[in-house]
Amino acid sequence: MRTKRLRLVMSAVLVGALAAGCSSGGQEETPQETGPVELTFWTWAPNMDKIAAVWNAAHPDIKVTVSKQAGGDEAAAKFLTAAKAGNAPDLVQAEYQMLPSFVAAEAVADIKGEVEAVRGQFSDGIWNLVTLGTDGVYGLPQDSGPMMFYYRTDLFTKYGITVPKTWDEYAAAARTVHAKDKTVYLGGFSSKDPGWFAGLAQQAGGQWWSITGEAWKVGINDGPTKKVADFWGGLAKDGVVDTQAPWTPEWNAALNGGKILSWASAVWAPGVLTSNAPDGKGKWAIAPLPQWSAGENYSGFWGGSSIAIAEGSKHKKAAAQFASWLNTDAKALDLLIKEAAIYPAAKSGQALMTTAPEYFANQADFWQQATTIAGTARGFTFGPNVNVAYSAYKDAFDKALQNKSSFTDALGAMHDATVADMKKSGFTLAS
Amino acid sequence: MTKAHRGARAHRAGATPYLYLTPAVVLFTLFIAAPIGYTAYLSLRQVKFSGLGLGRKSRTEIFVGLDNYRTAVADGEFWAGWLRVLGYATMVLALMLGLALLFALLLDSARVRLARFSRIAIFLPYAVPGVVATLLWGFLYLPSLSPIHATLRAFGVEGVDLLSPSTVMFSMVNVAIWGGTGFNMLVLYTQLRAIPRDYYEAARIDGAGELAIALRVKVPILAPALVLTTVFSIIATIQVFTEPMTLRPISNAVSSTWSPLMKVYRDAFVTGDLYSAAATSLVIAAISVVPSLLFMRLVRRQAFGEER
């Protein structure tokens, strides 16, 4: 009898818990908004609370509260979990590549109607990243990460190399440098940064995902990307590029101590160099990425994020107002640049970048150069399971580096894992 | 005690026994039964998309029966992960418990000096959180800044990579031993201190030296404590997660599915497939129970003197 009753109680509680777990989502949006509106905003940009304070002072009817998050894969997972549990924030910073999975999970709202007015502030390439090539608009672009070539001017002279114009020249320079000093590398291949590799694939003209009609087409192992993988595979096999995991104290020491002479990175690199390689101040310069064919002029994107509005938000209109202000208003853009060290996606924001970063005091035209390079960057459509592809990248290329095996095979493994996951989830795939 | 008898007693006591039980039952339900139940529920479901998956109503959560379990069990990486954990656990168990026993016996022996200091020094690493410990050791494993590598170089040993596929497991075992020995030693040592000193005196009169006392008096009496520490250690090593997860960013040799729990983490929080993660974690729970139970069964008689 006792056990029976206990079982009854336990199952009642269990059912209750399950019901609570399942009854998330589906909250109705309140049609009209009256009185002061409270918005929460998840972001990992530094000092965003100060920028929100400026907005709050000018808009007593809409109060934005910033909740600082850690970036990376976990940030996306945390948001998706919160959305599933029905307690997502109103506004969320979303990396461009994560946006499709947010849309697929119905975690972010289509805000086309609310942000039509600021459409003209963004270039087509960037705007495409928040529409995903559909009729909807799922966020407002905040910053972008056009890639460029960072190099040590003094050490390039010391080792007798010039800034490589093509990737062939890059390979030759890598061999020259490493032949002169076994402890020194021209640059590195990172199996930990799928976003970096994606940027290089974009530069080469790869299209990892595309939409044909009502079906996805996956092209992770397409010709241009294969070319990129083979190129780095060859250099890694010969041991003439650094293949250690970046973002470690070891890597910082190499970067700081002049053991790594260049870095194909993005516009946000000055922040990294300032903190991780302080001794290099005034010795680094930027140039466009090496090209695949002489005379071409392309770049890709590494990183960058948008501000999206949660599907579960009760104040979508107010949230869209704030997001528009944050990413297009002159004052807000100025704050983004100064306080959050962001390279804004809005055209008017890029014009505000005048003083070169302190670290690049030797290169007065840093931002002019960066803006020119940004204009040559081409992106691609991100698919609904970038997280799976990126996770597969790390595993496959880690393994290829360890076994000194073919990068083409690693790319194939990444492609297959991505396709298999999409099939399993039921997405329609173009044959 | 028969069923009827017990029922009668419960009847006489009225609701009081249930009242006493309430806190335990509520806590158990809220924090153990409900999450396990929800996990089991999730493990039977899966999200399916239609078309591009971008429009409204293109996402549905469906019941898939045991599909997630089938996928979990059919994944070769999952079993490769178990194999790695088996190797890891064997090394950790043998070395860590061996060292813990050795230290406990040494500290308990009559001739030891600086016992209190040594005890604290050996125990202290246990107070360092696993992530911090692994980060500390991880930085020591990186070549250019590390005193380990500097020492090796001083002895003419060059090019040792402590984070390569063939060495990274030993590097992890080292962290686990460093962190875990102190705790286990303390459990054993406490037990040793509880042994009446007369036993030793009796043994000495019989002509036993320190070594014989340790091996033939202390170790047998320690058996229950050894069983306890072994079971705890088996459970802890099977669930190895912190060490490989923390070393992963600095090594190319630790995959995202290095240990079974890492696979659960990847599925749930990186690729966003909570359903597969739920199924895999239940499989892991089932597998983890087996070695602990087997071990308990094996040693029950010797350790606890039970007859069954």
Automatic annotation (TrEMBL), chain A:
Signal sequence, renumbered to the chain: 1-19
SUPFAM superfamilies: Periplasmic binding protein-like II (SSF53850)
PROSITE patterns: PROKAR_LIPOPROTEIN
Keyword field: Cell membrane, Lipoprotein, Membrane, Palmitate, Signal
Cell inner membrane recorded as keyword: no
InterPro entries for this protein: Bact_solute-bd_prot1, SBP
CDD domains in UniProt: PBP2_TMBP_like
Protein's recorded name: Sugar ABC transporter substrate-binding protein
From TrEMBL, chain B:
Gene3D superfamilies recorded: MetI-like
One cellular-component annotation, GO: plasma membrane
Membrane topology of this protein: Multi-pass membrane protein
Domain of life of the organism encoding this protein: Bacteria
GO BP terms, alphabetized: transmembrane transport
Bilayer-spanning residue ranges: 20-41, 85-108, 120-142, 162-189, 221-241, 274-299
Classification via InterPro entries: MetI-like, MetI-like_sf, UgpAE/MalFG_permease
Keywords annotated in UniProt: Cell membrane, Membrane, Transmembrane, Transmembrane helix, Transport
Localization annotation: Cell membrane
Family matches, as PANTHER family: BLL4140 PROTEIN, DIACETYLCHITOBIOSE UPTAKE SYSTEM PERMEASE PROTEIN DASB
Name recorded for this polypeptide: ABC transporter permease
